Amino acid sequence: MIFRTMLMLSVVLLLGACTRPDDGADSRVDVSNREAITAGPLTDAQVDETLISGSPLPGSQEDLVVNIGDRVFFGYDRYDLSSEARSLLEMQAQWLSQHSHLTVTIEGHADERGTREYNLALGERRANSVRSYLLALGVPASRISVISYGKERPSVLGSDPSAWAQNRRGVTVVD
């Protein structure tokens, strides 16, 4: 009987000492590699301030979306940049110069009208149009890649002019 009690007590103590790997871990965003996603090393105080304030981590996709904007829109069957698109891309180029270690992918998208092949080609022309403008603004070519999704990844579902307008876009994505 004593042996059985000792065995049970040992099992309870062993199980009590076991913890899951994430128990007690900080529930905040993993910032162990923050130098790779910011303009440079942040102090622990800067990271804490960013996390407490709820503002996005500098150099992250969320930072780009919230503070600059990640997409430009195109007219029907067009791949030329509007003045609004150029203004946004100028801000993106400045943001990229502040975060000179980042690379981005420009995604080209089209609305649902037209064939798959046509929309893939149109999406590529749109992505290349964005890329060319960023290059002209001084962003090195080695930091920008392009991909076309054509009509395969709509931002807004629907078969109406408002949905189509939102789906004709070029999106800058932080790698």
Rough outline: globular
Order of helices and strands: HHHHEHEHEHE
Q: Count the helices. How many?
A: 7
Which radius of gyration do the C-alpha atoms yield?
24 Å
Low-confidence parts: 18-39
Strand arrangement in the largest pleated sheet = 1-4-2-3
Provide mean pLDDT, rounded: 82
Distance N terminus to C terminus?
63 Å
Q: Kindly name the structural category.
A: alpha+beta
Helix content: 40-55%
Strands, count: 4
Taking the sheet with the most strands, its summary is:
4 strands, mixed
Hey, roughly how much beta strand do the residues contain?
Answer: 5-15%
Q: Explain this structure to me?
A:
The chain is of the alpha+beta class. The chain is built from 7 helices and 4 strands, in the order ααααβαβαβαβ. The longest helix is centred in the last third of the chain and has 21 residues, at 116-136. Residues 18-39 have low confidence and may be disordered.
List the helices and strands and how they pair.
Elements: H1 2-17, H2 34-37, H3 44-53, H4 61-67, E1 71-73, H5 83-98, E2 104-109, H6 116-136, E3 144-150, H7 161-167, E4 169-174
Parallel strand pairs: 2-3
Antiparallel strand pairs: 1-4, 2-4
Concise description?
Helix content is 46%, strand content 13%. By secondary structure, the protein is an alpha+beta fold. A four-stranded mixed beta sheet has the order 1-4-2-3.
Characteristic key phrases:
175 residues; alpha+beta; 4 strands
